[in-house]
Specification:
Radius of gyration: 16 Å
Largest sheet: 6 strands, mixed
Strand content: 35-45%
Oligomer: single chain
Structural class: mainly beta
């Protein structure tokens, strides 16, 4: 799955995240076959709700493929909100938000976000081009960054996770 991440800013601090995951054509075709009840190649509100309730809800046990850290210390993943499944050109995208329990000032603290399946049933990578978006009112000197973490490779060392964060100069 190709991932994009949005850092939401209010008054210059990070208050939440938005994630979107776009699946390849093969997995998308399976999702459409399973949940596009009217066969129109799109998901209605009720079809999207069925995906949330039957598929996305099962990901709670592995924190929705999301690993958060604050200054390199683990941070609990909050309950997602606003889940939506959409289909475009035969590819399915899941989108949802996460409200942080406490706002994070990126000038003084580092919020790290990894999107990965620890069992590697699903391969996740940040999208090509702009994979990180800063939304709202981020400080002018901040930008999104993606860092490879080879020391945390998994699946017999074949998968090197990436971490997204906001860097301010």
């Amino acid at each position: 799955m190709e991932c994009h991440l949005l850092f939401n800013f209010e008054n210059g601090i990070i208050t939440g995240l938005g994630e979107s995951w776009t699946f390849d054509e093969t997995f998308s075709a399976q999702l459409l076959a399973d949940y596009d009840a009217d066969g129109d190649g799109a998901f209605s509100e009720s079809e999207s709700g069925a995906i949330r309730d039957e598929t996305f809800a099962r990901l709670a046990a592995i924190h929705y493929f999301t690993v958060l850290s604050l200054d390199a210390q683990p941070l609990d993943v909050p309950e997602p909100f606003g889940f939506k499944a959409a289909a475009d050109g035969g590819r399915v995208t899941f989108s949802f938000g996460l409200r942080l329990p406490q706002p994070v000032a990126p000038q003084t603290a580092r919020l790290g976000v990894e999107i990965k399946d620890p069992d590697y049933a699903v391969g996740a990578r940040f999208g090509a081009g702009q994979a990180i978006y800063l939304h709202g009112d981020p400080p002018a000197n901040c930008r999104g960054t993606i860092t490879s973490k080879p020391s945390e490779a998994y699946f017999d060392g074949l998968v090197i996770p990436q971490e997204a964060s906001v860097t301010c100069s």
